[in-house]
Amino acid sequence: MERAIERRAGPLAGVSTTKFAMWLFLASEAMFFGGLIAAYLVLRLAGSDWPVVADVLNVPLVAGNTFILIVSSLTMVFGLAAIESGDQRRLRQFLVATAVLGSIFLSIQAVEWRELLAEGTTASTSLFGSTFFTLTGFHGLHVLGGVLFMLYVIARAFQGRYTKEEHGGVELMGLYWHFVDVVWIFLFTIVYLV
Amino acid sequence: MSAAKRSRYLTVFAALAVFTVIEVAVAFTAITKSTQVVLLLGLALIKASLVALYYMHLRSEGPLLRVIAAFPMLLVIVLLLLPVFDLALAQ
């Protein structure tokens, strides 16, 4: 099936079914997060008791976490570039680095959540708490899903399953990982900075 | 990995890092809220575009994948603008 589509002419030429499907999936994910962000905006603009975000949230800590996610996108794209030139050793190194950075991001988010919960801000105390935990929670779940997906890709990389010619799995992993980074770019702005 | 590719990815990374620092600086600068929102959303859009174009390789993809990527972005913008206008009219 994949081969049949790759041989097609027209707009799908050179695009594997799996890559096509991943882009469609990411498009649906963009709508999912778009809906959540729209709900956040409505509740925030209409809500009268919204706190000053910088007083409640640890912006410097999360700015550092944002930086970690950006570095993880760099290591991911370096991993893909490595296998594109047939370098399996560097692919493994960069994939492991990306998974570690993703795990650090999640750990720092856990610290942030613990601080907030200790201060009495929970998902049920206010509209702010409810929307904050929903947005960052769903994104965190996506990062967790990405790390698990990454562990599978790493296992295959250590088995030598990716080559210069066949590395579709690494490319799909990269697309998903960068998408999660793009979502965070918007969430960081909308939830923490605006 | 070719030197050109490596340098392109590193340049995008540097831009993302610098824009993030600028974002935090803008957020803590005493300017009007509307200016702040426009600047911050503009910076976020630039950062997201850089990741999509260079790290997700949309720059070198065919028109179909570009449309699949761009279409939900347009829908999300409509989704975000509608409630904002609705709220503005209601006030």
Q: Brief overview, please?
A:
The complex is a heterodimer of chains A (194) and B (91). With 194 residues, chain A is mainly α.
Any overview of this molecule?
The complex is a heterodimer of chains A (194) and B (91). Chain A is built from 7 helices and no strands. With 194 residues, chain A is an all-alpha fold. Chain A has one domain: Four Helix Bundle (Hemerythrin (Met), subunit A). Chain B folds into 2 domains: 1-60; 61-91. Chain B has helices at 3-27, 33-55, 63-90. The chains are: A mainly alpha (194), B mainly alpha (91). The interface between A and B is large, with 56 and 46 residues.
Give a topology summary.
The complex is a heterodimer of chains A (194) and B (91).
Chain A: H1 2-7, H2 17-46, H3 53-56, H4 59-84, H5 88-118, H6 127-158, H7 168-193
Helix pairs in contact in A: 2-6, 2-7, 4-5, 4-7, 5-6, 6-7
Chain B: H1 3-27, H2 33-55, H3 63-90
Helix pairs in contact in B: 1-2
Helix content class of chain B: over 70%
Largest interface: A-B, 56 and 46 residues
- Give the H and E element order of chain A: HHHHHHH
Strand content of chain A: under 5%
Tally of domains of chain A: 1
Mean pLDDT of chain B: 92
> What structural class do you assign from the helix and strand content of chain A?
mainly alpha
What is the 3D shape of chain A?
globular
Number of helices of chain B: 3
Level of helix content of chain A? over 70%
Jot down its keywords.
A: 194 residues; mainly alpha; globular; B: 91 residues; 0% strand
